[in-house]
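As a representative case, the lines below give one protein's residues and fold tokens.
***
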Amino acid sequence: MSNTADNRLPCWIYRSSRKDEMYLYLAREVAFDELPKVLMKNFGTPTLAMELELHPERPLARENIDKVMAALRENGFYLQMPPRLEPELHEGEQTF
């Protein structure tokens, strides 16, 4: 797949003030008034984390690039939820 203008997408990524590791990807910078009110209420105050140009060959750390780009094109935003952390439980040594 070639990198034409059609498969490149500008993206602004904002960090949530309410939830660690929750990020909001926007197709347009500071387009918060276009987002669902309940989303913004739960997200809190957005802080710009970075600006990227997305394209299919650019991997994202925790998200599928095609899924993010499709959501940005369809909805204008993509919400990255924090990872589900599973605690590692270790049995301590037992002495009898």
Observations:
- Residues 14 and 47 are 5 Å apart (CA to CA).
- The chain has a mean pLDDT of 87.
- Residues 7-80 form a domain with the NE1680-like fold fold (CATH 3.10.510.20).
